[in-house]
Amino acid sequence: MSDPNKEFDGIKQSDNPLPAWWVWVWLGSILFAVVYAIYFHGFSSWGTGEQYAEQIQEYEKDFPQKTNVVASKDGVNPFRGDEKAISAGQVTFQTYCVACHGPTGEGLVGPNLMDKEWLHGNTDAEIYQEIMKGIGPDKAKLGRGPMPPHENTLGSEKVYQVMAWLASKNPNLKPSK
Ligand code: HEC
Predict the structure, then answer these.
(1) Does the record's keyword annotation contain Transcription (predicted)?
(2) Where in the chain is the domain with CATH 1.10.760.10?
């Protein structure tokens, strides 16, 4: 065994024990890490999963239409004839549809929605799909561009309201075949 405390070329190498305070800080850190990891994963609500769930909740509060799903029997608009829904639908139409379908719905870039002509069917079920999913370039018949989807911007409730307004103005929009 060579002497751990060497001296060579005037440089001294010592093998002293670590100071007690240092050892305690080191062991303490390890203990803290173990306790903290168990607490964080097992008992705290600080994880990203909880934060994500919270953000989803906030988002759904700001954009309620995403969760506010209106169901319909046989594709018939449940808001037909409902005065409140009709006036709400008119407001939505004024905001989202007039740019293409004109202020009275009689058409601009998009077709007239107040006449008897329907390019893709005139039933609630068909029109609902068209407004929610849009009419893609592969299906568009007018050659004036596609009709954009509204399922994310409006959602089912507002789309059915718009349709209730349309149906109140245009009797050629039928509940079903
Ligand atoms: C960016 C322009 C644009 C906007 C905004 C738009 N549309 Fe359209 N829409 C069109 C075009 C273009 C067509 C025709 C597609 C084709 O050529 O078949 C169409 C078609 C339609 C049809 C089918 C008409 C028929 O004769 O069969 C309905 C119903 C309709 N839109 C309703 C709406 C409603 C309701 C809104 C608002 C929520 C809306 N659109 C917003 C451009 C638009």
Answers:
(1) no
(2) 83-169
Tell me which residue has its CA closest to atom 29 in ligand 1: 127
Sign of the dihedral through C-alpha 115, 116, 121, 126: positive
CA 111 to CA 107: how far, in whole Å?
5
**DSSP H or E stretch at residue 88:** helix 83-96
- Distance from the CA of 97 to the center of ligand 1, in angstroms? 8
The phi and psi torsions of 39 (rounded to 5 degrees) equal -65, -50
Q: Is the beta carbon of 158 within 6 A of some atom in ligand 1? A: no
Write out the CATH class of domain 83-169: mainly alpha
Q: How far apart are CA 97 and CA 162, in angstroms?
A: 9
How long a stretch of residues is the chain? 177
Q: Indicate yes or no: pTM above 0.85.
A: no
Going by pLDDT thresholds of 50, 70 and 90, the confidence category of residue 15 is confident
Whole-number Å distance between alpha carbons of 88 and 28 = 64
- Ligand 1 atom, smallest distance to 139 CA: 18
Tokens of 105: 């719905």
SS3 79: coil
Mean pLDDT value of segment 150-169: 94
Place of tokens 């929610």: 132
